[in-house]
Specification:
This protein is mainly alpha-helical. The protein contains 20 helices and no strands. Helix 5 runs antiparallel to helix 6.
Amino acid sequence: MSDTTEKPDAAAADDATSSPTPPAKRGTWAGVILAAILLAGAIAAAVWYRDHGIVGDDGLTNAQRREVTEALDAAGDYIRHDKIPKARLILMKLVEMYPEHAEANHLMAQVELAENKPVLAYGHLQKSLEIDPNRAEPQFSAGVLAQKMNRYDDARAHFVKAAQLEPNNAKYPLYLGQLLLKAGKTGEAMVELNKAHKLDPTLPQVYGLMAQVAEQRGDNAEALQLVNKALEQLKPGDESYDAYMLLKALVLRKNGDPDTALAVLYALPAEKQAEPAVADHFAACYVAKGRYDLAAGVWATLYAAQPFNARAAAEAGLLYLRGGDVDRARRFYNISNRLDRLDPSVKRLRTELDKAAAPAAQ
């Protein structure tokens, strides 16, 4: 007799051998899943609140602060790479959205200054300092700008505040000393310059300014020593190098050494030698040697290179006249008078020629 009992297939066997999940266990897993979902939601909410709900002392949420920082970094990078219009676009929006942000106003001032708008630049610096007056660099920037705008008292106040905030930064007493020198307050200026020197003995500007003070009071030996120290900190092509070379030539000439002064002048680049201010030094050295013809030749050469320079022609005429060459003096007067009869040097040459002609007429 055959076995008619049906045997279960594999699936049926599995079903037959597996026991159903007890209801209590199913409830436990559901609770775990629900708890995980609630926890994830709580974490997401906490993160959102951290970024968007919590406001810091600066009035910004964390998300806003990140956005502002990224925008400031981008604007600063554009300023450093002289891409001022792109920096302006970013900063205009920032200042519009966050008008009380100190650094946004500080950078906006740099943009305005780069576009030659000093009044607007100073306004943004003032705003930046109203928001946060205890930042040395914006105080310094405001001082530099106020000095350029001939606002002496404001410039002095800014430099003093910057030095108070960062007393170990030599730049601030240096600029304050320079400002005081221009105002004729030599004693106060020297106090600040000595402070700067103690903080940084390698600053060429300190030596240069001290050399100017020594030269003005007639101490040529000290002036020469100081200007040499300034030049030791620099190399040809550096900012201020040529200015200190001219100061050295001036001191040497006043110290009775026009030949060495001329050697210093001839060491300057050719394009610098062609400047009217340098021609003054060359001519003064030749006059000190009694060579009025060579002194006049300096200005005549400059006139030849700049045929519309009335002053150059008139100065040549004046020196030819001092050397007794009246004919050449008159020729250069006629040239200079045609170019600009109101130029001070032309008027002076006219007066001197009239004086020279007066005894002959009698």
